[in-house]
Write a structure and sequence with these properties.
This protein is an alpha/beta fold. It folds into 2 domains: about 10-255, Type I PLP-dependent aspartate aminotransferase-like (Major domain) (Aspartate Aminotransferase, domain 2, 3-Layer(aba) Sandwich), CATH 3.40.640.10; about 255-375, Aspartate Aminotransferase, domain 1 (Alpha-Beta Complex), CATH 3.90.1150.10. The protein contains 13 helices and 12 strands. The strands form 3 sheets. It has a 7-stranded mixed sheet, with helices on both faces. A 3-stranded antiparallel sheet has the order 10-11-12, with helices on one face. A two-stranded antiparallel ribbon has the order 5-6. Strand 2 (about 75-80), helix 4 (about 80-90) and strand 3 form a beta-alpha-beta unit. The structure holds pyridoxal-5'-phosphate. Pyridoxal-5'-phosphate binds near residues 4, 82 and 158.
């Protein structure tokens, strides 16, 4: 129940045990379906949608490395670890990078971006939709995309924890590159990711004259496999079959119902945590639902709570990189009532063990009220 990887459904696990010819006719069909179902998940009509053999960070690097090279300028909007990572990657391929840091636990402000774009020229703007490291949601993302387009700047959005957990409308919001991983919202195995390019982004890639430093992540080479069913490198066959199943489950559930399940599940957890007497780390206004950050009270040790939870209740949650918080994931299969009740109970008991009194029954009642209070909104 941490900030990823998340549990996977049985159909996904079963698909992950199968190897077939990566260039055979069955695989061709699988690839076509992954693309079509991917278009639904990303809400795009673009056919430049591909899988990536590697972590979400590889998909991120693929976006960055194909669109940036020496002489290009990137505006990197920073809220924490993952948004900052895009700046590191941009510098590594020789681009000039300007970072706009939203500051301590805050979303990026569209007006600030607008003012900066009025003064300086950039080729690419990067940002996260949800910053998993601290639990902040960039609510103003659609406005920021709009401003970037007005200035003719390409955009790259990290939707690793948010894709299929909340609205992400690639075409409607005019986003040029969207990346996501398997192990979070999509609820498949870690190590196989996805990326989608808009027509404008693809055109920039086609026109590129600068040499490409990354061979595996070269989008033009990758499209030989994802567009023409030809050899690039040996595809991670089981991982792609697993991605196929995960996407099929998303299509079956529908995005609307899936978003609703995630929202109710996460709100139930948040309300339960607060009713127990703990504090949420991020103000409601820009709190991310996909990863719930809980502030640690004075004197309570993160490792003590988490190791007791894991040993006694077999529930694992995450600590954080440098912040005094613990984090509970609310992505994909994590948003199921049995996981919620178990996690909240285990957490309450573990806080007590760590010497912090919580009101466990108030917390559980509050969760129950949200999940089962209205039959239409039942989270199975
Ligand atoms: C987890 C995460 C990543 C990195 O994913 P890896 O698979 O570890 O590379 C990037 N961005 C966000 C928003 C994430 O939550």
């Amino acid at each position: 129940m941490g900030a990823g990887p998340v549990p996977i459904p049985y159909a996904v696990a079963r698909a992950n045990s199968v190897v077939i010819n990566h260039l055979g006719e069955t695989m061709d069909q699988v690839i076509e379906r992954v693309k079509i179902m991917g278009q639904y998940a990303f809400q795009t009509k673009s056919d430049k949608i591909m899988g990536v053999a590697g972590p979400s960070s590889a998909a991120m690097e693929m976006g960055i490395a194909n669109l940036l090279w020496p002489g290009k300028r990137a505006l990197v909007l920073v809220n924490g670890t993952f948004s900052r990572r895009m700046g590191e990657m941009a510098r590594a391929v020789g681009a000039e990078v300007v970072e706009l840091d939203a500051g301590e636990v805050a979303p990026v402000n569209a007006q600030t971006v607008k003012e900066l774009l009025g003064k300086q020229k950039f080729d690419l703007l990067t940002m996260v939709q949800g910053e998993t490291s601290c639990g902040v949601l960039n609510r103003e993302l659609p406005d920021i995309m709009k401003v970037a387009k007005e200035h003719g700047i390409l955009t790259l959005v990290d939707a690793v924890c948010t894709l299929s957990t909340m609205p992400m409308k690639m075409d409607e919001w005019n986003i040029d590159v969207v990346i996501t991983g398997g192990q979070k919202g999509i609820s498949t195995i870690p190590g196989v990711s996805m990326i989608a390019f808009s027509g404008d982004a693809w055109e920039a890639i086609q026109e590129r004259k600068a040499p490409m430093s990354h061979w595996c992540l070269d989008a033009r080479r990758a499209y030989r496999f994802w567009g023409e069913h030809e050899y690039h490198y040996t595809a991670p066959v089981p991982g792609i079959l697993a991605m196929h199943e995960a996407l099929r489950l998303i299509c079956e559930e529908t995005l609307e119902k899936r978003f609703e399940r995630h929202e109710i599940s996460s709100l139930g957890l948040q309300e339960g945590v607060e009713a127990m007497g703990l504090k949420l780390f991020v103000p409601k206004d820009y709190r991310l639902n996909a990863v719930v950050a809980i502030a640690l009270p004075e004197g309570v040790e993160s490792s003590k709570v988490r190791s007791y939870m894991a040993k006694t209740f077999s529930v694992e949650i995450s600590g954080a990189f440098g912040l005094n918080i613990i984090r509970v994931g609310q992505m994909g299969e994590q948003c199921r009532s049995h996981n919620l009740f178990k996690t909240l109970y285990a957490m309450g008991m573990s806080f007590r063990y760590a010497g912090y009194p919580v009101n466990l029954s108030e917390g559980m009642a509050s969760l129950e009220k949200r999940l089962a209070g209205d039959n239409d909104h039942y989270v199975p």
